[in-house]
Structures are given as structure tokens and as C-alpha cells.
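=== RUN LOG ===
request id: a7f3
mode: sequence -> structure
chains: 1
length: 309
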Amino acid sequence: MSVRPSRTSGFALFDAPYLLLTLVALLWAINIVVGRFVAGHVPPVGLAFVRWVGATLILLPFAWNQLRRDLPLIRRHIWLLVLLSGTGIACYNAMSYYGLQYTQALNGLLVQSTAPLLVAVWTFVLFRERLGLGQVAGIATSLTGVLVIISHGDLDTFLHLKPNVGDVWIIAALVVYAFYAAILRNRPALGPLSFLAVIMALGSVLLIPFALWEVLQGRILHFDRVTVATLAYVMIGPSLVAYLFFNRAVDLVGANAAAPFLHLMPVFGTALAIVFLGEQIAWYHFAGYALVISGILLATVSARARRKA
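=== RESULT ===
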């Protein structure tokens, strides 16, 4: 497996890819919970648009020096940056928020567990990169853990799950995001802050016509306390922090090694439901956690072995 070498950052957290990926999963799990919580109150495209505009404005002062230095690279690779922005920023987030307007939390969590498989498909289609048996076993093990948690250990739960329009939108969004994760290895050698600032700014621009269409449909942001609190979180947590962490982790270990950590999203989502919704912890939570963690460890060890081979 070929992963672009990356220099150490000099900052311990940024040289610990698996810790970064765990934090990414937590921040994105909260984002899903928040997106579902405000469904029907905050319009989905408006939420995505304001999220990225706000995140760009917050990041811009910190990224300014890198942007000035990287301007020739940005101009040279502008269409690749537009592709990365359109898939990983604009389409994925708007489509996910739209899907959360219609799907149940249980369905949404289940769909998220397909992400590592989709990343593996894209890396094979685009780069003919095959997964090792250990990585396949790790993905299957952690996926099993996710299913145990979501089903509450009851197979009958899945017999009553029926795809709806929300599920379809979220699956489509994950297909798009898996493509972004796969091609991220080819991103221009911009500084991490300038790269993030560019793709967020481009994503904001790409969302403008869809945001205007949503306004014309009468779906307007109302800046009450719920909306403001939601925007504050999505601008910083799952946007600035999580994307910076995810991009760095993929730079260090590659998309296939990073993908199994996305299984932690539904695990964290379940934990959040227990804490904030008063659900009771049960045996299947412990069983699911054990399987997810085992699968991640198996896939991670296998990926390290393949890189050294």
C-alpha cells in the first residue's frame, strides 16, 4: 500500500493518527446527533452553507500566511481542489443533513457503518489497492460490533428496518465522502491550514445556488438559541477540528487504515443516547464495544504490516 510520506509535525497529537481518528469519530458522531436533533428546525443546505462560511472565516486569520505561501500551488491544482471540496465538503454535508430530516436515528447509525467498505471499494476502483485479509477481517469484526449495538442484540430489529428517502440520501452522501477519502492521498502539498481553508471556502461557494434555492422554497434560518448553538458547534467541532485531524491522519496512514475508525461513530452515537436520552446500558453495548475495538485493532495491525512489507 502506498501512502504519501509525511513529515512529523512537532506536535505530539498530530503525529498520533489513531488518536486523531478516534477524536474525529466522536466529533462527527455528535454532529449526526445534532443534525438529527435540529431536523425540521434548521434547513439542511442552509446549515451546511453557514457552517462552512463560518468555519472558513474563523480559520482564515490562522491560515493566511500558509495561503500566501501556497498560492502558486493552489492556482496550479485548482480543479483538483474543487473536486475535493465538492465531494468532501459541499455534497457530503448537505446530503447528510438532508437525509437526517427523514431517517430515524437507528437507520442513520446503521448506514454510517458502511463507510469503510465504500472507502475500500473506491481505493480499489481508482488505485487497484486491495485490502489485506487482516483488514477485511477487521472491518467485518467492527461492522459486526456496530450491528450488535444498533440491533440491541436482537436480529428481529433488522427485519423491521425499511430504507426510506433519508437512508438513500445518507448512503449517497457516504459514497461521495468515501470518494473524497480515497483521493485525498493525491491532494496538493499545501499546508494543512491552507488546504482546509481552500476546500472549505470552495465548498461554501459551491453551496450558494442550493442555499438560494432552499430560501426560495421558504426554508430560512431563524437565529434563535437552538440555531446559534448548533451553528457554533458545527463550525468548530466537526468542521475545523475534525477535518484537520482526519486529513492529517489519512496523510499518515492512508484511507483504508483510517476507514475502520468510522465504525466508532455509531458506537459514540449510542453512548451519547445513553447519556443524554437516559437509555439504559445493556450487555449488547459491552459486546458491541469489544467487537468494534477488536476490529479496529485487527485492521490497524494488518495495515501496519502491509506498509512495512
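=== NOTES ===
Residues 13-131+162-255 form one domain.
Residues 1-5 have pLDDT under 50 and may be disordered.
=== END ===
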